[in-house]
User: Fold this.
Amino acid sequence: MRYAETGYNLEIDLSKGNIERVETDPGDTGFYLGGLGTNAKILWDRVPPEIEPFSPDNLLIFSAGLLCGTPAIGCNRTIVTTISPQTLLMAYSMMGGFWAPELKYAGYDKVIIRGKSPDLVYLWINNDKVEIRDASHLRGKGANEATGLIQQELKEPRAQVSAIGLAGENRVYFSSIEQGRSSASRGGIGAVMGDKGLKAIAVRGTKDINIAQPDRFMELCDEVLEYIKFREKTPIRGVPPILAGLGSPQEMTTHDEQWHTTNFAWGNARYRKKDFWTEEVEKRWTESLEKVRTRLISCYNCPMKCGATINYPGLSTYMMKCYSKLTYTMASMTDLDFGFQIAQRATEYGVDAFSTPQTMAFALELYEAGILTDDDMPGMPTDSEGRFLWLLDRIVQREGIGDVLANGTYWAAKQIGKGAEEYAHNNIKKHEQLPLKLGMLNPVYFLMYCTGEKINITQIEGQFPQAPFPKREQREEFVKDWFQVPDEKFKKYFVDWEPRGENSIPYYPTPQMTCDIVDWQEKMHYIDDALGMCAGLSSFPLKPPYHLHNYPQFIASGAGIDMDEDRLNQAVKRCRTLVRANNVRRGMRRKDEKPPEDHWKKRFPELEKELLDTYYKFKGWNEQGIPTKESLHELGLDYVYEDFEKRGVYSDNDPPSKEPSTDKEKEI
Ligand code: SF4
Assistant:
């Protein structure tokens, strides 16, 4: 009997219209950990580096995490994996909501899509009955709108639907997959779905999931619930309000936006407004939020209510959570009210709320600089709000300059030329990053920015406070009940960390300590992405209910896999290494692993080199960031080494950058 997982994947070939239910190897789950881990293995086996993002042979994998569908609180993530058109690397974007547990209840762990449908279709998975259905009547429909229409058509309001909007249909490189209460947005995975001619996947499942040791598993779940209640009553002191509790940062309840509005950059990630937050702004923004927020909502099996339904007058309802509350407002340098208005249109179009506003702000900077002219922007309004709405429509419809901007700032800058590349200044690995411009190099963030392959920095960080608390007594107080640490040395690292002086950034934490901290933070995210756990209860907040010490018990009692902390460390290292192996094979090297040049004002080239050298060594990677023969052997990944050898990966330090032109891609 299989526990926690169903033991079956759905394989859909859209070119042939073929549907298969395929039994999976239980050994792979223990070895790679399910979810992201087994996605990475499937991609490694079946999508060699010659395969382009918009090739029929690229796979689009929707995976429920290993523990999704069990009673584990907040375990509801779908991990969507493919080759990104924007980075040309492996993308693995997560969405919460209800879709992944529903897939498990229908009897499947993953849906693996290959090929391309000649006509727009959607997939209807109703337990054992699986159909590819015509979606021509849904062409051009918004993601939420299409969801409602599909539920009506199927006469099944309980069907969970993941859908793309017009952006995905038009292969906009930052298009998302929307799912009512969540979205998978990074890496342009919606464009791959659109390229395959797949508008949506609707799922309804009514089966059970087996638990290996139900009594023990429920005890662990109860402990998590108790701890969540405890943390509700005792928020972390000394950090901004949105970081004091658990869950996704509580942007839908908090009215204190001082931290984001004064620390993050406005416009095209350019301007800090240090005195922005005033009582008057707070009052106005509170009214804006309360006017449109109709209800606080949670994902499946979670009490945290991080999201909200937003009902902007005259527009249809949509869901919002986290920092997407501010991205459009800050990029357009306008007001929160406008942010709520444009986010509705953007959600229906299905675009990433981080990349989209930045791409539009980038276009307006080029216009101000005379690089783009009135000829490129015929009929563009003169006010900022009007310009953002105008640009959003052009991008999603790929009309005029919108066709260029739809490829994201990195590719658009190359295509526009005339110095535009200087303005695409906030990318890592060809992808827009958070609009942050800070003063002093931070070694922990430096390494996360350089080596992260999840693309989104907020989904790599967590566990260790972002900055030292001002006084030693405060730090000592903080570590007293910090049982989540891998071992005691992390407490000392934090207690000794000073805001100024010898033990302050950039030289403290030391490179070795920095490696320990980054590795811990990253490890937590990779475990979550394998299990399907929401980062908001595990890898992202300080002192979360899930941690390295209780996860092995969850896996053992839930999935029946023989697991302890050492085995978990090894399995997650294997999963992380396999993600890197996929990207190394696609040409990723040390030269790609760097933060934006202007991310910090004060840079330290020698220290940065030492940090990267130390971390690569710590991880078992060579000076190019490629996993070594020894480290691959230790993880049982000798097949990766053999492939690297065959392809000459170890001797090719500067593989040619694959940069297909838009026109060429359109011909594919
Ligand atoms: S913590 Fe928030 S984002 Fe995470 S599962 Fe719960 S409601 Fe969803």
